[in-house]
Amino acid sequence: MAPSTPHAASSHAADLLPPRVSEGGSYSVEDITIGCQVYVRVPLPSGEVEERRAEVLSIREHPPSTPSLPTSPHPPTFPRGFYLHFINFNKRLDAWVGADRVVREREMVWPRPKGDVAAAEKDGKDGKAGGSRAGSPTSKKGGSGASLLKKATANAAQGKKRKAPPGEEDAEGSSEEDAEGEDDDSLALPGSQQPPAVYSKEQEIEKLRTSGSMTQNTHEISRVKNLNTIVMGAHEVESWYFSPYPAEYAHLPTLYICEFCLSFYASPTQLRRHRSKCTLTHPPGNEIYRSDTISFFEIDGRRQKTWCRNLCLLSKCFLDHKTLYYDVDPFLYYCMTSRSPVGHHLLGYFSKEKESADGYNVACILTLPQHQRMGYGKLLIEFSYELSKREGKLGSPEKPLSDLGLLGYRAYWGEIIVDLLVNAQDDVSIDEIAQRTAITHADVMYTLQSLQLLKTYKGQHILALNDGIVAAHERALRKQRRRIDPSKLVWKPPVFTREQLRFGW
Q1: Which of 192, 195, 204, 387 is the one with CA 20 to 30 A from 341?
Q2: Catalytic site residues?
Q3: Is the pLDDT of residue 221 over 50?
Q4: Measured between alpha carbons, how far is 158 from 384 in angstroms, rounded to an integer?
Q5: CA 450 to each of CA 49, 440, 444, 466: distance values in angstroms, whole numbers, following the listed order
Q6: Tens digits of per-residue pLDDT, 12-66?
Q7: What does R_g of the chain's alpha carbons equal in angstroms?
Q8: d(CA 10, CA 29)
């Protein structure tokens, strides 16, 4: 047994040093600091109250000094409270909580002293370096959690070749580090060398509930959700994540957005005055698809910068991994709307790079929360692959996917591939599946492995459908779902000159 080095011993001691715990009733609300873990009362939809453990990310001692606006002479007031992240819950549930909801009868865990954390990190690095000098067989994959986070973030950055505008990195954090790339789901995405893990539906939902969109870098953790609710048309929606709206709008209790031009206002009076003058009744682009009440519009980010930037600011409220908001020139935006006598109401959208070196057919995709769980997500995904078929290319979404995006794509891939296999008259190869569906070979392989359809028979790999998959497919067919009608798509792949593809500030 090799003797332990002093560095390893000190690092081990620092790691095992337990944080200080204050017993219930021995602390006051004023004692709570950033980094503490406390229990708070959370009301449930059933009317019951649950006590959850949460970490304090920010403290609001006084009402924020929000500059008053022309029609808002009085800045909004906020109760004193804490911004909490609930342990083992998704980051989108982070919220401001009043001090009266803190359960002081339960224990409070203090944050680790900064000196101990710094010493542990330094000793860990020294121990790793010493081990490598001594010829330890430990590889880079066996590093600390911080190195794994750095490696995953770097891998995610390699797939995102976008550049933030000058000055935006300092204000909003690194544009390359906001991606959620360190979870098992994102590491096992199609195209990776590691074979994907197989989860049941219940395990998958639980994993995404407790890990999806939660693991962030230090810049993102410090970002406190700056908007509570958004009023858009007839809907009032609670925002999920931070969005870089201008400072004078950042701490309003409610932000009012025009559902046609996506301009944002601080009060309903401002919105009513704007609506009396706004003449826009649909997204400012070309309508390329219309079926019943569903339409798709193609919008060039270079021609409609203001509208596309407003769309990106809105979508950032619900996409944790979205990193760019103002650099819209390199993208085309495909917006899905529902037509009514008043106009075309935005349901969702996806963006697409005009020239993607990696062959991505989707950069960002979002169904607005007020229209989720209605089948619009699959409709957006199906439309993106229909465009890829018209282009004669195979397409794949840009990685990493958000948690809800990952679930949506998995469901769509499985449904389309199983439907093709069930209705196939002859044997079908993986290449034929890819060519017929416009899904890349890596995504096809990923789906087949997840559904456990790849079998080995007499030394060869075959595709075999089991009774459970067929029964689930039949149940899905009995559900009425909107589908894209290719005959109603009036569109040709756009061709851009070198001058049109030259972007910059």
Answers
A1: 387
A2: 398
A3: no
A4: 23
A5: 38, 15, 10, 13
A6: 444 557 888 999 989 988 899 999 999 999 999 899 999 999 999 988 765 444 4
A7: 25
A8: 34
